[in-house]
Amino acid sequence: MHETTTDTDNVKTEAVRHLKECLKLTSINRFLTATYDEEAKNLERQIFNAVHQMTRIGLNDRERREINAIWFTFVGLSAQNIRHLEICSITDFNSLFGITNQELRSLADRGRLDVETKRKLLQSTVILQNHWNALQQGPQKREPTEIPPGPSTPAILTPNSQPLTVPQLSVTGVKMIQSSSMGFGTTPKSPKTSSRLVHAIPHKWHRSTKFRFNGDAVCHFCQRPLGFGFLNAWEKCRSCKWKVHTQCKGRVGDSCGLTPDHLRFLFDKLIQENNGGMWKDPQSVPGSRSMNEPAFQFPDAAIDSSSSTNSSAPSTPALPNIIGGNTSSLTAPYRSERRFLFPDTESYSVHGSRLPILVISEGDHPTSSEIQEESVYQARVAEDEAATSSGAGNIESEGTIVGNQDSVGSQEVEAEAAPNPDVVDKFNKRADGGFTWERHAWNMSTIRGPNAQASWNEVTIQFESIEFNRQAPIIGRGRFGKVLRGFHYGDVAVKVYDMNHISDESKRAEEFKVEVSAYKNTRHDNIALFLGYFMSEDKYGMVMSLSRGNQSLYTMLHVVREKLDLATTRKIAQQICQGVSYLHTKKILHKDLRTKNILIESKSKVVITDFGILSMKRLAHPRRTYGYMTSKFWASYISPELAMSLRTDFDEYESDDLPFTEQSDVYAFGTVWFEMLTGSMPFAKDHPHRVIHAKSLGIRACLPNVKCTQEMKELLASCWNTNPRDRPTFTDISSKLTSLPKKQRVNRSPSFPVMMKSYESTF
Length: 763
Ligand SMILES: Nc1ncnc2c1ncn2[C@@H]1O[C@H](COP(=O)(O)OP(=O)(O)OP(=O)(O)O)[C@@H](O)[C@H]1O
Hints:
By secondary structure, the protein is an alpha+beta fold. The strands form five sheets. Strands 8, 9, 10, 11, 12, 13 and 14 form a seven-stranded antiparallel beta sheet that branches. Helix 7 packs antiparallel against helix 8 (115-137), helix 19 (566-585) runs antiparallel to helix 23 (662-678) and helix 19 packs antiparallel against helix 26. The longest helix has 23 residues, at 2-24. The N and C termini lie far apart (63 Å). Residues 140-199, 272-353, 362-368, 388-448 and 746-763 have low confidence and may be disordered.
């Protein structure tokens, strides 16, 4: 057994060394030249065989990342570029192949890759995937001129390196290839299992003899201008509309396939037809949209300059064979979730690693039996403590339990060190999903400065010094803990956090401090007042001012079903904006803005709570194989980019988090605004799994027929913009709210028939 492990390790080490050696043999520039000679071709083959071998030796996540990084370094990406792609979940080749060229370009733009590096990245990815597909399809499938022959380097034999069998079906001239496993180190699926059919449609290259003007268009392969004139320097595929230089043609592979964009478009259409009431954004109505525009416009996706405006096929280049494959062992983040899946052909369990299943956590609100249980428990604790203590734990007044003042415990908490700078660094990094906050994001004097310890001590409250209301100690239970009613120099809400998501108990205190750091320096009228935190043995939590209104905006809208008038809606929305805008200026992201986390203090005041706590680590606990346990309707609040980042293979030790940003908070505000306008939840009746799927396709919830002004709808549309950069800031929203008409405009009915403009058409 031990020997087998060592053998496998040796094989891996040998394979990595081999890959590195191959990469040393040439430079990416030579390798990307369009007119490459026989020697270059051989080198290319060697590299790709080495890469391909790497993927068949049962690599774990870390190793896959390493190989990915080696490859990207070879392509010319800096460590920062690689990190950016990793944050965008491009952590291995499967994830790289899972995105379209257009999306990769968009990611490169977001990561500010320079033009040359971006070109290399795009070009090398196309080549890599062509080789990959060729190797996956086995020797019998290869075509001598277009696709490189088999390995020219000695194959590395591994337990998983059996040749792949790729049955072919021929359907009306279109090659339908039974997809083989593209999993790293996984056994290929038997063709009898529910593998997907992947279309592999050969390009139909066409040279026009007409004079062609293509000033701005670039070659889809090498990203260089196509040029113009009578010279047939480039060709166009009639099926997928790819335009490439003639000399690049040989390297783009021979499958234009059904592109992901085609498939998304179809799916989009199907959903629309089934739903009936799709948001009638002219951009998203299939009938009115040119196929050139992909059904789902990836956030920030630049419109391809080479798009033909009147053509009937997408301009997005095809990345063949990306749909199929056994993904059970893959990192299949971000893009792979967005691959088109025929929902009725395979059960979720097969695709679990692509599209997480959201399971609603129980216990949104305590049941009466829970309250009773908690009361009995609190009473018992109090009795025990009263019996054993030296008098400090007496029951002082009717209905109030006074905890035991454990002096050792207090000293321990007093002696708690300030958070480790590395942990704070990590938090700063993950605070916005990887885009580094400035280092002065946190008040240095309180976190790292010489007064850090004193500052933490100032906000430490001994859990034992809090008195709990014995009759009704529990206010509510949430996904990550419970809220108790207490007394600490006045009525307080005590939020006790569950820290089980950190399996290493010795790290819980550190992690918890990082989480509550966000609260320490907040002082705003619309932000729940943080009074202190406590950490003792297995108790982690914070003490906050008790919201007097006794209800959240969620309860008000969806349980009590109170109808909000325009003035109240505006007032509440303004206050939310002010509160979150304040957090953003303090470089704190809310990450979990929901009506449940907006507490109604009085008719004229709301306070925001639960900010900065949500993280992938929390979400991923308790671990589920194919998804997450979330709060009810959580999926309705997450922005499309967050939905696309959800992956099922999250590991507690990864530093990555969901890419929360100020814009994702704005999206969540959009949902809150929707709820206030309509009194209902967007996607209320849909299964959360379907909601994230819809979001990843860029579908927005249908706006029911509500009476509200055009400006209000526009505000909603802008917050829900698929492209995060097009969403307003909270300051913008605030000023829009101020300029909203004070009264609902009265629509007088005309005395003659008019063409009524549908409310949806305003979007
Ligand atoms: N400061 C507070 N004052 C009064 N009640 C509060 C306070 N903070 C939270 N609550 C109430 O405590 C209950 C539990 O809150 P918690 O934040 O744990 O979960 P939640 O937001 O309701 O649910 P989840 O976050 O799991 O969807 C809620 O009913 C909430 O309104």
